TrEMBL record:
Entries under PANTHER family matching the protein: ATP-BINDING CASSETTE SUB-FAMILY B, ATP-BINDING CASSETTE SUB-FAMILY B MEMBER 6
Transmembrane regions: 12-33, 53-74, 94-115, 127-149, 161-179, 233-252, 258-277, 341-368
Keyword field: ATP-binding, Membrane, Nucleotide-binding, Transmembrane, Transmembrane helix, Transport
GO cellular component entries: plasma membrane
Name assigned to this protein: Cyclic peptide transporter
Organism: Tumebacillus permanentifrigoris
Pfam families according to UniProt: ABC_tran
Membrane topology annotation: Multi-pass membrane protein
PROSITE patterns, per database record: ABC_TM1F, ABC_TRANSPORTER_2
InterPro entries: AAA+_ATPase, ABC1_TM_dom, ABC1_TM_sf, ABC_transporter-like_ATP-bd, ABC_transpr_CbiO/EcfA_su, Cyc_pep_transpt_SyrD/YojI, P-loop_NTPase, Type_1_exporter
Length: 648
């Protein structure tokens, strides 16, 4: 018995356990004290029910008790029936100390787990707990493998070993469940924060700068990239646990035969180099496929947005379909190439695994004559057991590559939006009821790579409260650009816009306007309006505008937005009316209306807004109504050609 307990390996392992578990126990004790301090200071608050707390404490106690029983039975089952009393009588064995230190570490970690589980901290990321449970789960899988291997080689009763098999199985399942639950929660919380941060940055970005980014990039980042990360978590959890299992198994192999382990390690290093080289190529191809996906999403937007135009023109439809199919084909080609290279990662790993297995069986006995068949059997059984974990690790590598590409894209778009955004959009805005807006030598250019494709200005004009102004001009004359400049959607490249004698930035300028542009977007909810106080007014104008039978507004939510273009613009008109801003701008509002509502718009609504002291600006081609305006601005080739005086 003494010879077994006094082997060099046993002493080394015992002292390693004392050192490692001792540091771990001290660290956990510090975390427990820190957690108790946070609970006392109410930084952590109890969550859950009394029954849930009892279940958590009871189950954790049972697990700790099972681990204690397993540690207590180690000498009897693995040191030829030795008892702890016999070990205690020995003068120099470190095994007893290793037992107590290991048990103390288990108790400290269990206490830390129970406290943080019952008293969670808001937005806490339990990386330490997840890491420990990953290690426990991986080691438990290796323990099951070790117990099976030991049981196959013993002729005595196997019931005691069976209890360790059950213990390893329980710890593996328990650890996997907790790792998955915590990592899933952490990941989704992280993605929530990323999405919210990106949404906040986007909503702070000026309109003209958002146009530079492109809708398809925003869509793929908010949807596809975040989902790629979220959907990969399960596989990555399995891969991490499997990695721990493999490392633990290698420790077991090192104890069995060092030469065999060194041979295996050399082959694994070679495999790692090959996999790393292959994975770099896969990362580049995944990035290219992500770019191709952006282009394809742009075609999807075009397909849905321009479907009626495509439907009515067969040639246009056919040519568009060819381009979209070509884009889809390019995405398919890039993705097949990326997945193909990713598959090579798996095949390289598989090949190396079988080379290692063949080398152990056929080459190792030839190189080292002293290697016993029993040792080889241990190695072969371990490698067969590790086939599943090895497959998990190999499957994890391509997914990590995809996650890395998606994370890089999220960071890129976040940095780009943050760079284009402005904190001034959060500053309080003072909107005066009476306004005088003056454009002073304002210029703006549409840039096409290196050259300006269209230039507006210099423009100087004025708009005032109680005034009705029409803006007219041919297609491409710059009237819509002028509207976007005066509303703050575009920033002048030269000149300035002054409101009541003060120069305002684009964000503060825009807060003075209620607008209906030709491409007005109708939300499903009434935002920015106290709908509860405007219930009667809403019902009145739904009836006046002839859409009371088409939809209802309940608690600020529209019953439907599936309306005709003219009906949508009438509803948009109602929304702008309820917003009650000092300046109203309408871009070709009457173009989609029948004569009845067109006459209502010009003869009743616009004069009513003017009578209320509003500044009203309307872009229009309806020259028969020009006599209603106080001023008509005519645009041509980006310039104000004349401001004719309407005839009364």
């Amino acid at each position: 018995m003494e010879s077994i307990l006094h082997t060099k390996q046993t002493e080394i392992i015992s002292w390693l356990i004392i050192a490692t578990a001792g540091l771990f126990a001290l660290y956990c004790a510090g975390l427990v004290l820190k957690t108790l301090f946070q609970i006392v200071n109410q930084e952590r608050k109890f969550q859950g029910t009394g029954a849930g707390a009892v279940r958590t404490v009871l189950f954790t106690t049972l697990v700790v008790g099972a681990i204690a029983a397993g540690l207590y039975g180690l000498p009897n089952h693995f040191f030829d029936g030795t008892t702890w009393a016999e070990i205690q009588a020995l003068p120099s064995s470190a095994l007893l100390g290793a037992f107590w230190v290991a048990f103390t570490a288990v108790v400290m970690f269990a206490l830390h787990f129970v406290l943080t589980h019952l008293y969670p901290k808001p937005e806490e990321r339990p990386l330490f707990t997840v890491s420990i449970f990953s290690v426990v789960s991986g080691c438990s899988y290796a323990l099951v493998m070790f117990i099976v291997n030991t049981a196959l080689k013993t002729d005595t009763s196997k019931l005691g070993l069976g209890s360790y098999f059950v213990l390893g199985l329980v710890l593996y399942v328990f650890g996997q469940k907790l790792v998955r639950m915590n990592l899933n929660k952490m990941t989704n919380n992280m993605l929530f924060r990323v999405r919210v941060d990106l949404i906040q940055k986007i909503t702070k970005t000026p309109f003209y700068k958002m146009e530079e980014i492109g809708k398809e990039k925003i869509y793929t980042t908010l949807n596809n990239d975040t989902e790629t990360i979220s959907s990969s978590i399960g596989l990555i959890v399995i891969g991490i646990t499997s990695s721990v299992t493999i490392l633990t198994s290698f420790v077991y192999l090192a104890v069995s035969d060092l030469f065999a382990l060194l041979t295996t390690a050399v082959l694994i290093v070679v495999a790692g180099v090959l996999i790393n080289l292959t994975n770099k190529s896969a990362e580049r191809l995944f990035s290219q496929s992500r770019d191709a996906q952006n282009v394809f999403f742009r075609y999807i937007n075009d397909l849905l947005g321009g479907f009626k135009e495509l439907y009515l023109n067969r040639r246009k439809r056919d040519e568009f379909r060819e381009d979209m199919v070509e884009s889809c084909s390019e995405y398919r080609t890039k993705r097949i190439a990326a997945d193909g290279v990713a598959a090579n990662v798996y095949f390289v790993g598989e090949l190396v695994a079988f080379i290692v297995l063949g080398g152990l069986i056929f080459v190792l006995p030839a190189l080292f004559v002293g290697v016993h068949n029993e040792t080889l059997s241990d190695y072969v059984l371990v490698f067969l057991f590790l086939k599943g974990p090895l497959d998990n690790v190999l499957n994890m590598i391509p997914r990590i590559t995809q996650v890395r590409v998606s994370w890089q894209r999220i960071q890129q778009i976040s940095e780009q939006v943050a760079r284009l955004g402005s904190d001034r959009m959060e500053e309080p805005v003072v909107v005066e009821a009476q306004v005088h807006i003056a454009l002073q030598d304002v210029e703006f250019s549409y840039l096409n790579q290196e050259q300006a494709s269209f230039h507006v200005g210099p423009i100087s004009c004025e708009f005032s409260s109680g005034e009705l102004v029409f803006i007219t001009g041919g297609n491409g004359s710059g009237k819509s650009t002028l509207a976007k400049l005066v509303t703050g959607l575009y920033a002048p490249s030269n000149g300035q816009i002054v409101v009541n004698g003060r120069q305002l930035d684009e964000e503060h300028l825009g807060q003075h306007f209620s607008t209906v542009f030709t491409d007005y977007y109708l939300f499903e909810k009434l935002y920015g309006v106290d709908h509860a106080d405007a219930e009667q007014e809403m019902q009145k104008y739904l009836q006046v505008l002839g859409i009371e039978s088409k939809l209802q507004i309940v608690d600020g939510v529209f019953s439907t937005t599936k309306l005709s273009t003219g009906q949508k613009k009438r509803l948009a008109l109602l929304i702008t009316y309820l917003e009650d801003r000092p300046v109203y701008l309408f871009d070709e509002w009457a173009a989609d209306q029948d004569p009845e509502f067109r006459a209502y718009f010009y003869h009743e609504l616009l004069p009513e807004l003017k009578a209320r002291g509003k500044c009203v600006i309307a872009i229009t081609h309806d020259d028969r109504y020009f006599d209603l305006a106080d001023k008509v601005i005519k645009m041509e080739a980006g310039q104000i050609m004349q401001t004719p005086v309407p005839s009364r």
